[in-house]
Design goal:
The protein is an alpha/beta fold and 289 residues long. The chain has a single domain, classed as pyruvate-formate lyase- activating enzyme (Alpha-Beta Horseshoe). The protein has a five-stranded parallel sheet, covered by helices on one side. Strand 2, helix 6 and strand 3 form a beta-alpha-beta unit. The longest helix is centred in the C-terminal third of the chain and has 17 residues. The model has no long low-confidence stretch (mean pLDDT 93).
């Protein structure tokens, strides 16, 4: 939990407040991890009642944030999934994913892996303020190209779409992503749960004071008059005139490019727990003799 990328819009920030820490600086500097994640994952996959289904990795915070260079927990998790032929997908905004092409490409060839790159804006100055320690937009398109050239199915997430600030970039992002090899696409309307509303409004006043009122007005118009709505089916897309216009723009752009919003079909029939997992004790098991 927590993420060094420091994206001001991150919907995961309130999880730190839940744990008694700041959703601001603490979220970016006090990171929580599970050092025994590999043993826990093996134990779960090897359970007799476990049924294979695609796993979405790093959906709360980015699995390829800078700390991953040292700890390599994401790489170890992917290695475990590879050994068991277990399908997975991932969304990241980091070029560090290129390091693990050697593991992901063979899985992709079996229909077991898909990688999405999250790209919010084409404006490097806006990106630097929105996502201060994440890869630059151009670098993410380069990563999409490298993954695609390696035979890995790729997609782009235009996320989040911030009205009156980044929404005008949607069509260009989709087009550049398609040129880089992405064939899947999705988008998420700006989400501001709990403490995130105040943090984001303060950020707007600091960096875009002339647009702040307009941005929040459009957000509230698309959220039933509130800064956020958690209703299933609405929290990712919003509702109302602006949200509907955004949905139509996305749909038309994808149709024009030949990109699909449907999820990739994964194979689950190849899943098999290695015998070594069943007999070799892990740190979570007791050794009797």
């Amino acid at each position: 939990m927590g993420c060094e990328h420091g994206c001001i819009y991150c919907y995961a920030r309130p999880t730190h407040a839940f744990l008694g820490m700041s959703p601001g600086l603490d979220f970016e500097s006090k990171l929580l991890m599970k050092p025994d994640v590999v043993d826990l994952l093996k134990k779960e996959l090897a359970h007799p009642k476990y049924k294979c289904a695609p796993i979405a990795l790093a959906m709360n915070t980015d699995g390829y944030q800078p700390i991953e260079r040292e700890y390599q927990l994401t790489r170890q998790v992917i290695k475990v999934l590879s050994e068991a032929n277990h399908p997975f997908s991932m969304v990241t905004k980091s070029s560090l994913v290129e390091r693990d092409i050697d593991l992901i490409a063979p899985m992709a060839a079996k229909g077991l892996a898909t990688i999405y790159l999250s790209i919010t804006t084409l404006d490097r100055q806006i990106a630097r303020r929105l996502e201060p320690r994440a890869a630059a937009p151009e670098r993410r398109f380069e990563t999409l190209r490298k993954l695609s050239e390696a035979g890995i199915p790729t997609g782009v997430m235009v996320a989040p779409v911030i009205p009156a600030l980044t929404d005008s970039h949607m069509e260009q992002i989709l087009e550049k992503a398609y040129q880089a090899g992405a064939r899947k696409a999705g988008y998420v309307f700006l989400r501001l749960p709990h403490e995130l509303t105040n943090l984001f409004e303060e950020w707007l006043q600091q960096y875009f004071p002339l647009k702040a009122q307009h941005v929040m007005s459009l957000v509230k118009q698309s959220r039933g008059g509130k800064s956020y709505q958690s209703d299933f089916g609405k929290r990712m897309r919003g509702e109302g005139i602006f949200a509907d216009l955004l949905a139509n723009r996305f749909k038309l752009s994808c149709q024009k490019l030949g990109m699909s919003g449907e999820r990739t079909g994964f194979r689950t029939d190849l899943f098999k727990v290695p015998e070594s997992w069943r007999h070799k004790p892990t740190s979570a098991q007791l050794v009797l003799f």
